[in-house]
Specification:
mainly alpha; 3 helices
């Protein structure tokens, strides 16, 4: 069984961490419901199985993605409550 060494190579991890950071920043201004989970997932993958304190862009992207996702869910629930819909 051949192992896939490209999955977690430094260049792929660096690209994922920057994607996570960019999605986290842009998600605050537009498309938070989509970009929040993208930042969350790509940050998690870039950090690996444990939180790597050396990968700062991935950690910031992960945290921003978490905040954006929670705020988007709260906004969706609040919008549904205003219009009388039950979730």
């Amino acid at each position: 069984m051949a192992s896939n060494s490209r999955a977690h190579s430094p260049s792929n991890t660096s690209a994922l961490s920057w994607i996570s950071l960019i999605c986290g920043i842009v998600g605050f201004f537009t498309f938070g419901i989509v970009l929040g989970p993208v930042a969350l997932i790509t940050g998690w993958i870039a950090m690996g199985k444990h939180f790597n304190s050396g990968n700062v862009p991935a950690m910031i992207g992960f945290i921003l993605g978490l905040i954006i996702t929670v705020l988007a869910i709260i906004a969706l629930i609040g919008g549904a409550a205003v219009y009388g819909m039950s979730i």
